[in-house]
Design a protein that fits this description.
The protein is an alpha+beta fold. The protein has a domain at 55-134 and 188-236: Umud Fragment, subunit A, CATH 2.10.109. The chain is built from two helices and 13 strands. The protein has helices at residues 30-52, 200-203, and strands at residues 53-57, 71-76, 81-83, 103-106, 115-119, 127-134, 139-143, 146-149, 152-153, 177-181, 186-190, 206-207, 211-221.
Amino acid sequence: MGVSGPVRDLPKQPPRAAADASGGPRRKSALREYGEALGFAALLALVIRTFLLQAYKIPSGSMEPTLLIGDHLLVDKIAYGLRLPDSIFGLNPFPGTIPYGHYLLRLGRVHRGDVVVFVFPLDHSKDFIKRVIGIPGDTIAIKDGKLWLNGAAAPDPHAYYDLAGADRTRVSPRDNFGPVTVPEDKLFMMGDNRDHSYDGRFWGFVDFDAVEGKALVIYWSWDNDGNSIVPIRWRRFGMVIH
C-alpha cells in the first residue's frame, strides 16, 4: 500500500495579494479611517443636538435679570420627552408621515416656573425663551402689572418691574390682561422682565409640542455693552438657570 508524501514536500502557494502575512484583510488607509471617524463624530453631534442638548444665545432683554443679552446657555432637549425636530436641515421629507415638531414620548411634566425654549407660535422659524406661568387648567390674569393665578395674587419671585404705577394703563395687556384659562396641552409664558417682554399676554398660548427643552446652565456670557478690554461676564459661567 502506498503512502502520501510528507506535507512539507508539497509546493507552497504564494501569498494572496489582498491579504497580509496573517491571512487577514488589508488594513484601511489612514485617510479612510479619518473620514469614518469624522463622519461618526458629525452624526453623534447631530443626534446630541437634535435630541439631547443644544446651545442657545440670548439676543434680547425680555428675561432680564435672569438671562442677560449675550448669555450662552445649554438646553436639555429631553427634559420633557423625545421630540422630533421641526425639520431636517430645513427640509420636511415625507410630510404627513413623519410627525415633525411633535413628541413621540413624554417623559416629564412641565412645571410652573420652568424656563423653556419653544417655537414661537406666530413664526415657526424663530425660537423664544420664557418662563412657564400657567399650565393646563390654570386661570391667569394681570392686574396693574401683577400676576394673579387661579383667582389670587401669585408669588412671583422672578418678576422684574421698572415702570411706576402712574405709567401703567388699563388698555394694554402688559398691565391688565385676562382672566384666561389655559387649555389642555397648552402653556402660558411670560418673560421675567415684565415691562419689556413680548409674551403670552400679546400672542396667547404655546402648544406643549412646541416646547423644545428646558434651560439648564449658562456656559458663556459676553457683554457687548461692557467697557472692559475683554467684555466677558466671568461670574455668570456655570450659573444654573432657575
